[in-house]
Design goal:
The protein is α+β, with helices and mostly antiparallel strands and 145 residues long. The protein has helices at 3-18, 24-37, 67-72, 100-110, and strands at residues 39-43, 48-53, 58-64, 76-86, 89-98, 113-121, 125-129, 136-143. An 8-stranded antiparallel barrel has the order 1-2-3-4-5-6-7-8.
Length: 145
């Protein structure tokens, strides 16, 4: 689907969900998002992050830190997770990670679940909205499934 149509479809879905609409159109959009999100993505939010989402609903995220954050936690963190798409949202739950002590501290502080609205999803870009309603995560595809 051309990028503009996908963006309009996502906007329409978000508007429909805001009004409590659900049904075949929302389910079809979620299925399209599930298929399109599979692959490897990178962003530069508070360090280099690489997120790989597999078709079976599992995934990993590697976070490469530097400076003070690297000293506090570790220069490289790896998280194992499960993911799903529902009602136009990407939902992730972290199961474990390495180094275990640093990951456990992060999960205790921030929680092990993330539920982010999908603002845009194309073949090359995934834009998610943080729970604060302001911060946008701008992921770029680096590898197809």
């Amino acid at each position: 689907m051309p990028r503009i149509l996908l963006m309009l479809a996502a906007w329409g879905l978000a508007a429909g969900l805001a009004h409590g609409q659900d049904g075949p159109q929302a389910e079809a959009q979620d299925e399209q998002f599930r298929h399109l999100v599979i692959g490897t993505w990178q962003d530069e939010y508070q360090g280099k992050r690489t997120m790989t989402l597999a078709e079976d609903g599992t995934g990993t995220m590697v976070v490469e830190l530097d400076g003070l954050k690297a000293k506090l936690f570790a220069p490289r963190l790896e998280f194992d997770m499960v993911w799903s798409v529902s009602k136009g949202r990407l939902k992730k739950r972290t199961l474990k990670g390495e180094p275990a002590i640093a990951v456990q501290l992060i999960l205790k502080t921030l929680g092990d679940r993330v539920d982010e609205p999908i603002l845009e999803l194309t073949q090359d870009r995934l834009q998610l909205l943080d729970k604060d309603g302001k911060t946008k995560y701008d992921w770029r595809r680096v590898r197809d499934p």
